[in-house]
Amino acid sequence: MKRLLCFLIGSCLLSVPVLSSAQVHHAQLGLGYQHEPAQDEIAQKKISIHFSNTSLETALQAIAEKSGIGIYYNPHLLPRKSVSIRLADIALQQAFELLLKDTPLEAIFRGGDVILKEKPKHSPAKTTSKTQLQQKEITVTGVVTDAITGEALPGVHVLIKGTYKATVTDSKGRYSLAVPSPEAILIFSYIGMDTQEHSLGNQSVLDVKLRSSIKGLNEVVVIGYGTQLRKDLTGSIGSVSEKALRQVPITGMDQALQGRVAGVQVTQTSGQPGGSVNIRIRGTSSITAGNEPLYVIDGVPFYNWGTTNNNGPAGIFGTGVVHNALSAINPNDIVSMEVLKDAAAASIYGSRAANGVVLITTKRGKAGQARVELDAYYGIQSVAHQLPTLHSSQYAELINESRANARADLGNPASVPVAARPIPELADPSSLITSTNWQDQIFKKAAIQNYQLSISGGNEFTQYALSLGYFNQDGIIKVSGYKRYSVRLNLDQQVFKKFKIGSSITVNNATNTINRATGNELQGGLIYGALLQTPTIPVYDASGNYARPNYTSGFALIDNPLASALEYWHPINTTRMIGSSYAEYTFLPGFTLRTSIGLDANYLKNNIFIPTSTGTPPPSVGSGFAFASQELGWLNENILSYSKHFHADHHLSLVGGATFQGANFERMISRVTNFPNDLVTTTNGGQTDLTNSFREGWRMASFLARAHYAFRSKYLFSVAMRADGSSKFGPQKRFGYFPSISAGWNISEEPFLVNHRWLNDLKIRVSYGLTGNSEIQNGVNSLAYYAYIGSVATANYAFGGKAVNGLAPNILANARLGWESTAQFDVGLDVGLFNNRLNLVTDVYVKNTNQMLVSGTPLAYTTGFSGSTQNIGGMQNKGWEFAINSVNLPGAFRWTTSLNAALNKNHVVSLGQADRQIILSSNTLIRAGLPVSSFYGYVMEGIFQSAQEIEASPVQPFAKPGDLKFKDVNGDGVINDDDRTIIGNPTPDWVYGMTNAFSYKGVELNIFFQGVQGNQIYNVTRQKRESMLGQYNGSTQTLHRWHSASDPGDGKTPRAVAIDRNNNNRFSTRWIEDGSFLRLRNISLGYQWPAKLLNKWHLKGLKTYVSAQNLITFTSYSGYDPEVGRSGNDPLVSGYDDANYPLQRMFMFGLNLSL
Question: Is the pLDDT at 312 greater than 60, yes or no?
Fold first, then answer.
């Protein structure tokens, strides 16, 4: 067991709960094959080492590493003192006697370990006789385990409160202690764990589960190409531990990050199961290249290969959904996640680290008895709320009034435009009986279920971990859902004492069934269809067919929403395999050579069929679309590392290596129309409208190095460098160089603070460095990997009186196209107080993107091109972030809090020309000095009440009483495009999250809040629902519209008019809303069943729980949900609510079972 513990602590792939073990140091403690040495053999082992003004804790670390033993002790009893001593070739037993002199501790040698316990003290004489004591004395036995992992904990200090009588647990976590009476209280303490007190009562068997402390200085953190003690970190790294991952049920790794790491903004832009998500670390850094972080799974970069579905004539196939490849990651396989935020932490990944790096570590096997775990939950989902719409009579009144006002504006001409003509079916609103709520027809209650089985174990030579998973989430909108099958196998084999090999493979198969939830209402979009379709028709007609309005009467050309949902067929099937193998050889003292290979293969099929039975009216021409892609990425890494302590005061670790990586892509597209019937749904059943295929690929060669030096664990210095050479760029810009430097000062290790027991940690960190962004993108289906050499496109021309196919340049070559480079400066502070019951981590940063890619840069007309992409821009993000973790109540009733928040301010520094600005879709502006993608429109000032008011105001040529009045921003007396100004910012100022966890006697309650503050949303959905243009059903807000000067409504909603010549619906502050929200993201109540009962059932652990997700949202936003964006990762179109698929409210029941 001792060897197993040492191996676990040395592994760079284990999570925080495992790493909070009692081992003092991890670096030199490898897994061996000899039998455990005898106690005398260890005690007489010779050691030579020198300490000068070194903390006792650091001295123990150095001895543990140099001698290869494990040291266990009660952290509360360890004096915070410095030692100066020279030990020259003396026995370990003598060394500990000298080291622990003048302390209350003594060293006990047990097996291959050393246990530090209090020296015995004599209590005052008692009058009770020995016979009486023996009569009262009882023997208590039990097992102490980790509350999260269930692993036995050796070396736990068990003390009878108020006495000096104590013992420690053995290698299997067992203890036995003679206790004087049933009234005794036992204290269990263990380094890295919270101390617990237990009343004995009449129990003779007392099993205890210890929980890890909020933060341990000896906690090992996964970093790029290695691991490091948290107290030695000089970079900014946020962590999500296995404990946090298992607190509440999650459906994807993005949910595990949301609200749990300071500076990380996760936006679920679609509630579509398996739908898109945006992840931003410290803001948006680019307007042309990618903004997603780099994901690395067990050392293999994971690319978010997704596909959009906006392909087809006039967007007929457009769903607005981007398939999220991250959903293929099974969150149950993850043991920890580290987020590398600053340059010191991330620069080792060079040209792909400008947006941060997320390191994902999966579960691996551990030596010992096989462990079988089953995690399962089942739940019901529903839409949180519906949007209020008009019933039939209200709808008819709105349509009639809108068209009457339009006719009046035109002077009631003899020939009335179609849009202003009365609709006969609506002539008498009071006679309308049918009033269909179309939202009821598209929304439903939907099931979600998850079953995960894992088996792990092994011996001292071979360890394994196998997991099988099934996840099925039905969508809350009909005919949508996501189903995933997953298999993962991790193997580690100690071939020889110094040679180790291992491999990992993950295979996922997922089917994402997508509907046109967010499409245009005139092309089958379900949400718009349900909100805007006339309520005056039933769902089915008298013949049992889908009912549709009489389009010839003037009703909007919107199909029956239920027909659009049920008749549309669109599955996306993805099979993905990620595999890696490594070989690791330890040679010479402190040297390790590791070589690895990795593969990431992804195959995707995307099929769509729209039958002839749909249309406005049907029959329509059937349409189909087929898309197939195949991606293969490969990686070879060769890393040499060195770690060494010198005379206990100096620690040096070095990493160097070379990596080689590449990827190939093949994609094929086929689009067909005019299917004769619905019997053949494949693309060969219609007429080909479009075919396309292409192949792309890239290669990268990289060289990296890092050095870290620590002096007495007080003064820390790190430097790192990576050189990346990429085929994406021309010979002049092929290589990029990304250095970083950082330093840390552990002030709490200074002699003037070392004796302050209330202060456990005080460290200042400073870092500066460069990272890059090589993710040049040009649309969704073309990554433009060779943009520096330009590209050509089909260009037909006439020759000899015939049309001839040809190719012509369509993108100008730019041999100087290069990396985007981000320079980041970071200052951080780490504080631990009151035995680490209160911890604070805070950072201030400035992040400048230079050589930013800007597309459409104007060129001389003589080039034949209107513009090109160049490295001429700049952007800045600066901010402050903090995370606080506290143990508010540490006793039997335990209460902990985790709070994090981040403030980020973004603005564009330059677009290459002083006066240049980029206007997107007439409502989004990019300009130097402003946040990226600021909303750009008119300022609404009120409603005209009379013709006299219109006459006295700046010119709005077609305004009538009841129309909106807009602000004359430039003061020229005329309202036109020049009066547009900045009216909102879609990027929040603050993002935050807070978790409160309570536990008492096996009952656990977790409450998780998450939110954003300070952003605005463009409510496109409300713009359509309140347009009042004489066709669509409307929001109940339209009931408060202007009717006359004597009935002005609410002063915000203009009159209804079918022909809006004043353009009341133009993009203005009318449609901008506050997007701030605070959401009760999850609340979970669980019960850990007692060990006494589980032993009868032959179980190691059982937890049952109920959980609710997205239960309550506090917001002033009027739409379905304030957590919006635009599907996909384009930073230029964020903050749009364009009938987004709403997030689900979930209620779940689950269990975690261990055998």
Answer: no
Q: Closest Cα partner for 1075 from 1118, 1111, 1036?
A: 1118
pLDDT in tens, 696-715: 888 999 999 999 999 988 99
Place of tokens 């921003």: 969
CA 102 to chain centre: 50
- Predicted confidence (pLDDT) at residue 218 exceeds the cutoff of 80: no
User: With pLDDT > 90 as the criterion, what percentage of the chain qualifies?
Assistant: 48
Which amino acid does the sequence have at 1011?
G
HSE-CB at 678 with a 13 A cutoff on CA atoms is 13
Are 242-363 and 370-383+445-524+559-938+987-1024+1073-1149 in the same CATH fold? no
Question: In this predicted model, what pLDDT tens digit does every residue of 658-686 receive, in sequence order?
Answer: 999 999 988 888 888 888 888 888 888 88
* Distant-in-sequence contacts of 302-307, Cβ < 8 A, 24+ apart: 302/326, 302/329, 302/360, 302/578, 302/600, 303/600, 303/631, 303/633, 303/663, 304/1129, 305/602, 305/604, 305/629, 305/631, 306/276, 306/1128, 307/572, 307/604, 307/606, 307/627, 307/629, 307/780, 307/781
How many CB atoms lie under 10 A from the CB of residue 164?
14
Q: Please check whether the domain covering 133-210 is classified as CATH 3.40.50.920.
A: no
Neighbouring C-beta atoms of residue 123, cutoff 10 Å: 10
Phi, psi of 325 (to 5 degrees): -65, -25
Which CATH number applies to 242-363?
Answer: 2.170.130
Domain residue ranges of the chain, discontinuous segments joined by +: 2-118, 133-210, 242-363, 370-383+445-524+559-938+987-1024+1073-1149
Whether the CA torsion 858, 864, 865, 870 is positive or negative: it is: negative
The number of residues making up the chain comes to 1155
Q: How does pLDDT run across 938-990, given as a tens digit for each residue? A: 999 999 999 999 999 999 999 999 999 999 999 999 999 999 999 999 999 99
Tell me which residue of 836, 831, 837 sits closest to 894, measured CA to CA: 837
Q: Which residues contact 698 (CB under 8 A, 6 or more apart)?
A: 662, 663, 726, 727, 728, 785
Number of Cβ atoms within 10 Å of the Cβ of 121: 8
CATH 2.40.170.20 fits 370-383+445-524+559-938+987-1024+1073-1149, yes or no: yes
Residues 1018, 923 contacting (CB under 8 angstroms): yes
Structure tokens at 143: 């097992």
State how far the Cα of 711 lies from the Cα of 715, in Å rounded to an integer.
Answer: 5
Q: Is 30 exposed, middle or buried (0-12, 13-18, 19+ CB in 10 A)?
A: middle
Tell me the pLDDT tens digit for each residue of 393-440: 999 999 999 999 999 999 988 888 999 999 999 999 999 999 999 999
Q: Band of the pLDDT at 321, cuts 50, 70, 90?
A: very low
SS3 63: helix
pLDDT value of residue 136: 59
Please determine, looking at this structure, whether the domain spanning 2-118 carries the CATH number 3.55.50.30.
yes
Average pLDDT over residues 872-895: 93
Cα distance between residue 506 and residue 1108, in whole Å:
30
Q: Rounded to an integer, what is the distance from CA 834 to the centroid of its chain?
A: 32
Task: Give me 94's structure tokens.
Answer: 């003598």
Q: Where are the alpha helices (DSSP H) in 210-354?
A: 242-247, 253-257, 343-346
